[in-house]
Amino acid sequence: QQVLTQNGFIDKNDLYYPFEERGLQFGDGIYEVIRIYHGKYYLLNEHVERLYRSAESLKLKLPFQKSEMYVYLDELLEINQISSDAKVYLQATRGSAPRDHVFPDADANLYAYAQDLARPLDKLENGVATITRPDIRWQNCYIKSLNLLPNVMMKQEAKEHGCFETILHRDNVVTECSSSNAYIVKDGTIYTHPETNNILHGCVRLRVKKLVKDLNIPFKEEAFTLSQLHDADEVFLSSSTAEVMPITKVDDTVIQDGTPGKITKAIQQAYEKDAG
Ligand code: PDD
């Protein structure tokens, strides 16, 4: 398997890092997870744009210009002969240097690799259960940073409750989930948290916004509360790996009859068409 690095492509088995890697010691870096359907990137521009926005927010200088990044990411799929459903994981850190909180005089480290990833068809059809927890993350969740400890803790807690995701709230206002964006449907209107610093500006969220506009379904970027969540007609989440995923249970509350809602299904259909 060939991995893209700041120095070009190298074999996975030849990829080593010094122990003083800022990604490891400080979580001082950013990442992207990009979806691939039938060997082709989906929402690539959106992911690359967000990567550069995250880098700028952290004053992290990426090793490539944007235009070079596109060329290398295409090469990554070609070299590894990716033709199926897959994902690319890309991360960039502030480099390797003797440990010091202050920025080092080092070049960024970057790697990106492709991995097969099947669509979660069973969950997409039947929906998933969730729990709710306080959003204990920092104030800059729009940055796709490597610091995922709260997200990891909350996702694990979901799993321990037999659930797929944890829906997060700040003072009873729902922000998003541990690794996806959250939505409700009430009286035919979709609600989701606005693109503030308190959520990751999801690439699929952006596409959902466009798809529902084409479907003439009202879409309000207005935060909703925990009680609105439990009282919703439909609930769903979105991410590059989970797609548009129906939520049929929130804590002990079964949403309506416990099956995916009509509007959620309509968006799923539009998404499938869009993703080809
Ligand atoms: N997670 N919110 C959070 C906190 C996320 O980590 C993600 C993505 C999303 C959805 O973003 P997008 O639609 O661009 O995938 C929302 C990725 C998939 C991950 O960490 O694995």
TrEMBL record:
Keyword field contains Glycoprotein: no
Keywords of the record: Aminotransferase, Pyridoxal phosphate, Transferase
InterPro entries, alphabetized: Aminotrans_IV, Aminotransferase-like, BCAT-like_C, BCAT-like_N, Class-IV_PLP-Dep_Aminotrnsfr, D_amino_transT
Listed cofactors: pyridoxal 5'-phosphate
Top EC class of this enzyme: transferase
Catalytic activity: D-alanine + 2-oxoglutarate = D-glutamate + pyruvate
The organism's place on the tree of life at top rank: Bacteria
Keyword Transferase attached: yes
UniProt GO molecular function: D-alanine-2-oxoglutarate aminotransferase activity
This enzyme's EC code(s): 2.6.1.21
Pfam families: Aminotran_4
Family as reported in the entry's similarity comment: Belongs to the class-IV pyridoxal-phosphate-dependent aminotransferase family.
PANTHER family: AMINO-ACID AMINOTRANSFERASE, D-ALANINE AMINOTRANSFERASE
NCBIfam families associated with the record: D_amino_aminoT
Quaternary structure annotation from Swiss-Prot or TrEMBL: Homodimer.
Identification of the protein by name: D-alanine aminotransferase
